[in-house]
Design goal:
The chain is α+β, with helices and mostly antiparallel strands and 272 residues long. It has 2 domains: 109 residues, no CATH class; 135 residues, no CATH class. The protein is 31% helix and 22% strand. The chain has 6 helices and 11 strands. The strands form 2 sheets. Strands 1, 2, 3, 4, 5, 6, 7, 8 and 9 form a 9-stranded mixed sheet that branches. The protein starts with 12 loop residues before the first strand and ends in a 5-residue tail after the last strand.
């Protein structure tokens, strides 16, 4: 049955972990990955393939990341690459918390709860990882690229839909900081590569929301730069992300949907 004819209120969405880089569903995820993320935001797919291969060899050693690629499809179609509804990739970082790196949903599968299922299953997987290591899971953090103020209305519609998803899964916006990430579309040795400004979102897990003070959030953001991007204090991306006056705070995710026009006007989407 063509995907366009699927009754979006009927199919049950199943989520499972990928363990075979040659599986047609994993190959379909590679294609969806490139279609749902801009080149300046995504790492080479080969790095994700390597993580999938490593999962089949042995458990992560103490101190190593526990990486996972989860896939989603309607029940009964888990072997049909055309039915791949979405993917999520991320990891547990020992001594830090959970880091959700990338998530994508196929165009035909929007508004079917795919994103919610992927996030919720990812949270469950990381809880198991943390339990096996005998440590708490204080939070899961993720990034998202907010459109420019002059971006087309369709880009802002997609952003608003993404914010609604973050709200549904219990995510909070870390307001007051633009996280400057490396631009993966440029050569690593190119010092002129413009950074990618990202918004940070967090779901408190074993640590209460009240514990995430501005000082604690600064520590977490600094650790994210060091652990994930290998940026230390003194590097341009680290220092520009966390200038001395930066005072991050947690706010409802929906607050991130407000955009500012070139004239300084604030626009609040009616659907948030």
């Amino acid at each position: 049955m063509p995907l366009q004819q699927l009754d979006k209120t009927q199919p049950k969405i199943l989520v499972w972990e990928a363990f075979d880089i040659h599986d047609p569903m994993t190959l379909a995820a590679a294609d969806l990955y490139e279609r749902t993320l801009d080149a300046d935001e995504r790492i080479p797919w080969l790095w994700i393939e390597q993580s999938v291969q490593d999962r089949t060899r042995c458990k992560p050693r103490p101190g190593e990341w526990s990486r996972h690629l989860l896939l989603a499809a309607p029940a009964g179609r888990q072997d049909d690459p055309e039915a791949l509804a979405g993917y999520v990739y991320g990891a547990l970082l020992p001594g830090f918390g959970g880091y959700l790196c990338y998530v994508g949903v196929a165009e035909w599968a929007r508004r079917m709860g795919v994103g919610t299922r992927l996030y919720e299953q990812f949270f469950k997987v990381l809880r198991v990882d943390a339990g096996e290591r005998g440590e708490p899971l204080p939070f899961v953090i993720w990034e998202s690229h907010r459109p420019d103020p002059i971006a087309p209305a369709s880009d802002w519609d997609n952003w608003t839909a993404r914010i609604r998803l973050f709200d549904r899964v219990g995510g909070l916006w870390i307001d007051g900081v633009d996280f400057l990430a490396p631009n993966f579309a440029w050569d690593d040795d190119d010092d002129d590569a413009p950074p990618v400004p990202l918004q940070l979102f967090m779901k408190p897990m074993d640590t209460p929301e009240s514990a995430f003070t501005p000082e604690r959030l600064r520590e977490i953001i600094g650790s994210l730069h060091r652990e994930v991007y290998r940026n230390e204090p003194g590097s341009p991306l680290y220092d520009k992300t966390l200038p001395p006056h930066c005072q991050p705070r947690l706010r409802p995710a929906r607050a991130a949907a407000v955009r500012q026009t070139e004239r300084g006007e604030l626009v609040v989407p009616a659907t948030v």
